[in-house]
Structures are given as C-alpha cells and as structure tokens.
Amino acid sequence: MQIFIMVLGALVLGGDQLLKYWITQNLAMGQARTMLPGLLSLTRINNSGAAWSSFEGQTWFFYIVTIVALAVILPLLVRAFRRHDSLVYFSGLVLILAGTLGNFIDRARQGFVVDMFQLDFINFPIFNVADMALTVGVILIFIYVLFLDRDEDTTSKGSQR
C-alpha cells in the first residue's frame, strides 16, 4: 500500500506540473475561464509570494523553507516507510513532499509559482495542485497526531508490559 501512495504522490507532482504547463500555454496572464459558475474558475497568475501575496518577491525565503521542509520530511518519510507506520501519517508526508516539490520546481525554474484555481464564492487566494497537496497532507498529519497516534501509543505500551 505504501508503494501505491508513493506512486499517487508522484502522480500529484506530475499532474501539478502538467496543469501548470497547460495553464501557461492556454491562458494569458490574469485571464479567467469559468469552470463551475459561481464556484470555480481557472485564472492564471504568477505568484512570487505565498498566500495573500505574503513574502512577495522573497524567493530566497522560499528556498530556505523548502530546504528545511525537505530536511524534516525525507527522514520522517523513510522512517515511516521502514516501520510501516499509519497510512494516514505516511500519506500526509507523501502529499506534503509532493506539494513542496511542485512549488519548488516552479520557483527554481521561473522565480514564481503558477496558480490557477480561483474560488468564485469567497475571497480566497488563487492556488494550485501543489498547494492542495500541502493542505491535505497537513490535515492528514493533524488527524494522525490528534486522533490516531494516541491509539497506537496505547496499543504499543500495552504490548510492552
């Protein structure tokens, strides 16, 4: 199952890059295409910052954050793979890795991230597949830490007695 999740992470990363390429080839800067009226549009922007334009133009900051994130995620991922840890935890790490790499590739190649998903029903930053992977990955890690990790700690402590 872990191999399947790693393949899924690679597909998320590949899909992120392919969609960004398609967007840059088919939409002019700032151009929008309605996908679901009143809900979702594809709008091309080049984002040199983070959400709500925070840290705009601070590419060096994102390089540092990426290096730190990879230094934390990769050993955790290897350890989780070897120990056959919870699939929720493992999936969260894989998605965080895919999202981190997806946005890093953009910043390294172009100096900015291509964003495209615009929620039309709320004032929310335009985002991309890598951002979604990061968000879902963090949510899965929170679920694991808040609800599942305790169960595993209790089970392992009981078996050590």
From TrEMBL:
Enzyme class at the top of the EC tree: hydrolase
Transmembrane segment boundaries: 60-78, 87-105, 125-147
Q: Which InterPro entries match?
A: Peptidase_A8
**Gene Ontology MF annotations:** aspartic-type endopeptidase activity
Q: Which domain of life is it from?
A: Bacteria
Quote the pathway field.
Answer: Protein modification; lipoprotein biosynthesis (signal peptide cleavage)
Q: Report which reactions are catalysed by this protein.
A: Release of signal peptides from bacterial membrane prolipoproteins. Hydrolyzes -Xaa-Yaa-Zaa-|-(S,diacylglyceryl)Cys-, in which Xaa is hydrophobic (preferably Leu), and Yaa (Ala or Ser) and Zaa (Gly or Ala) have small, neutral side chains
Q: Which UniProt keywords apply?
A: Aspartyl protease, Cell membrane, Hydrolase, Membrane, Protease, Transmembrane, Transmembrane helix
Q: What is its EC number?
A: 3.4.23.36
Annotated localization: Cell membrane
Q: Where is the active site?
A: D115, D131
Q: What membrane topology was assigned to this protein in its record?
A: Multi-pass membrane protein
Q: Name one Pfam family in it.
A: Peptidase_A8
Which family does the UniProt entry place this protein in? Belongs to the peptidase A8 family.
Q: Quote the function comment for this protein.
A: This protein specifically catalyzes the removal of signal peptides from prolipoproteins.
- Name this polypeptide is given: Lipoprotein signal peptidase
Which source organism does the UniProt entry give?
A: Lapidilactobacillus achengensis
